[in-house]
Amino acid sequence: MRTRVRPLTATIALAVTALAGTPLVPVSPASAAAGSPAVRPPLGWNSWNTFGCDINESKIRAAADAMVSSGMSAAGYQYVVVDDCWQATTRDASGNLRGDGDRFPSGMKALGDYIHGKGLKFGIYQAPREQTCAQYFNSIGGATGALGHEQQDANTFASWGVDYLKYDWCSPWGTLDDQIASFSTMRDALRATGRPIVYSINPNSAHANTGALYNWSSVADMWRTTEDITDSWSTGCAGDCFMGITEILDVQAPLYSWAGPQHWNDPDMLEVGVHGTFTPTENRAHLSMWAMMAAPLIAGNDITSMPADVRTVLINPDVLAIDQDSAGRQAQRVSDSGETEVWAKTLSDGSAAVALLNRSAATATVSTTATAAGMPAASGYHTYEVWTQAIRNTTGAISATVPPHGVVMYRVRTGSAIATDSFSLRGAGSGRCLDVLGGAPNDGTQAVIWDCNGGFTQVVTAVSGQLRISGKCLDAEGNGTVNGTRVIVWTCGAGTNQQWAMQDDGTIRGVQSGRCIDVNEAATANNTPLILWTCSAAANQRWGRL
Which residue in 7, 160, 371, 529 is deepest, having the highest Cβ count within 10 Å? Predict the structure, then answer.
């Protein structure tokens, strides 16, 4: 087992966390705050992770436009949340909140109307003490927190058409009981307006972390369990500091019994695509693990300019379906083998979602079984990998080669799958399978041989003459046609350099080159590269389906 640096609150909570081989624990639903509109984990976008205080109505309107044009709203994202720094530094003569006149000259109600006009929902930020976080940390002036104005502010928000309130403690003052009382006051004020406003709280800002020490399900619709997230896989945070993906997972893991419809553990906003920091593999892993935890998915990237690969991650329908499953269960960490983990949860239709997580910087094989993931005993099962759409039958074993900082995520069902043209290719000479170097199917990655394990980068799908792996196509590098041309994976196109003919003798011939996929120098070791070579039907050119 590795030694992890864990926050103090997580260390307390993790005294009861499950280790390797622990089965799923049946969970009874916790009670929800009365009147909660958050039947499923909210999906939306928040301004803070990209813009901080540098916000104005033009940027928020552009984000609303992009949520529609990008396909995010069609995928289920609803909330456009204006974080801190929207407000004027003082209240008006009647004590009412108002927007900053320079940043939001049209006013907050007009902004809400614009967002609603796009078929979306309007979110806003406030704090329960004297100051907001930006005011407390001197990013902006003023003291316009809600203390003493709770019902007045709730009424104001309702009159503006607010659908979501992020309520951020931002004070070192107060015991846990003080926080519970204060957060409950705003809950009651929001409910009294008669408007269904999702209530999101964070008890940890500028305060000793209490988010993971108390079940807030009767107080709020969603509650932050951790310190603020940052765009890092791991920060080593051990106290009052920004957390990476892995630190947040460690805090959240033992809290699974608190989550359910209308009350959600919130591991903080998404860093998918923020500042371009994460690799595509890390972006997929980040969204996958938040979906496994039935977390609110609040994007934080600049959605007006996101690249296609980030958009594809955010709107993956199979991942979102796991997050939005009506059972509302948070996954449990059912095994932990050092740098690799297995997370699983049972879904409303009786299937299971299974995530094979590799926290390390090296490729690793991660394995479990269908029964360990909570499935009933059966003669057979099939797995559907949510990122590659590969379907495999299994008698119960679930295993994959997982890239560094990566996840392979399955939906597992009983019975055999319908017939598909997906398979693995085992070399006759090496006994190893066609795979992708490092388990990372990015453009230009070398095709190699590796121990056969059924992992997602060993699942080949034949489509219209192409051989696809993890959504990429086997490709003759640079349209090469000479002996020694590397076989790589690349974004699928219409070129004949990506067309392959599978011959009766077991060879795979390139349509453009007329040459065959060959294990370089007839070697048999893991990571031996695949190249094109004159077809000879030698053992190092013959492949059998698994």
Answer: 7
Catalytic (active site) residue 168: yes
The residue extents of the domains of the chain are 333-414, 422-545
pLDDT of residue 382: 93
| Catalytic site residue from 168, 250, 325, 336 | 168
The residue among 341, 367, 359, 368 whose CA lies nearest residue 281 is 359
**Dihedral, CA of residue 533, residue 537, residue 540 and residue 542, to nearest 10:** 110
Q: Of the listed 83, 84, 163, 228, which one is catalytic?
A: 228
Q: State the CB neighbour count (10 A cutoff) for residue 356.
A: 28
CA dihedral 122, 125, 128, 132 (to 10 degrees): -160
Class of domain 333-414: mainly beta
What are the tens digits of pLDDT across the range 412-447?
999 987 555 788 999 999 999 999 998 878 899 999
CA distances from 41 to 164, 190, 324, 330, 414 (A): 12, 19, 6, 11, 27
Fold agreement between 333-414 and 422-545 = no
For the segment 99-124, the average pLDDT, to the nearest whole number, is 98
Task: For residues 185 and 178, give the distance between their C-alpha atoms in angstroms, rounded to a whole number.
Answer: 11
Contacts of 312 (CB under 8 A, 6+ apart): none
Report the Cα 491 to chain-centroid distance in Å: 23
Whether residue 228 lies in the annotated active site:
yes
**520: which 2 tokens?**
């370089």
Whether the Cβ atoms of residue 79 and residue 64 lie closer than 8 Å to each other: no
CB atoms within 10 A of CB 136: 21
Nearest to 88 by CA among 102, 75, 70, 78: 102
CATH of domain 422-545: 2.80.10.50
Please compute the mean of the pLDDT values over residues 167-183 and round it to a whole number. Answer: 97
